[in-house]
Write a structure and sequence with these properties.
Layout (H helix, E strand, L loop, with lengths): L1 H9 L8 E6 L2 E8 L2 H13 L5 E4 L2 E2 L5
Parallel strand pairs: 2-3, 2-4
Antiparallel strand pairs: 1-2
Length: 67
């Protein structure tokens, strides 16, 4: 969780304030809202790059997107 937050801070394209991170073991769940699909994809890639991550569940939504 802390690793991923630190990685988000390094990427100016990610507004980490809109993303919540929950982790247990190697499983990470991302929730919240971002501004664009690019930001969502980047957040997921960053989560995968954190040490020890074996699974990422991306529940992040894009602002203005219809469900």
């Amino acid at each position: 969780c802390c690793w991923i937050e630190a990685l988000f801070e390094r990427h100016a394209e990610i507004d980490g304030t809109g993303i919540r991170i929950a982790s247990q073991g190697g499983r990470v769940v991302l929730t919240g809202t971002v501004r664009s699909w690019r930001e969502r994809d980047l957040a997921e890639r960053v989560a995968w790059s954190a040490p020890g991550v074996t699974e990422v569940e991306d529940r992040v939504t894009v602002q203005g997107d219809a469900p």
